[in-house]
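Q: Predict the bound structure with zinc ion.
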Amino acid sequence: MEVTEVTLRLFEPQPNPDQTGVVAFANIVLDSTLAIKGIRLVRVRGVLLASMPNKEKQRECEKCRIRNDITNKFCHSCGISLTRIESSQRIFMDMVHPVCVSLRKQIEEVLICEYERVKKQ
Ligand SMILES: [Zn+2]
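A: Predicted complex:
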């Protein structure tokens, strides 16, 4: 399986090179048949990584630490309001991700190459 198309948009403002953060958003097509939208290219400790599309799945109650469905307004265990959510309490699930290391590596290489090309323009 190969990446046959890539479109990439730089995130603005770009984080400083020594900061962790999203540097670009990308869409790819695999083998001219499967589109994957919403991949984030993230810099972590100076290394660029592909963060596959994900969805917020659950949130952890700050009082009792029970996981609640994202649609719950109140904790199903202790009843506390779940409206104030710290980022550390948010739980995400990948919607799509490569199951083999070689495809992940290929996707990251294509995205990094495109990122460098777009950044120069
Ligand atoms: Zn609770």
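A: The chain has a mean pLDDT of 92.
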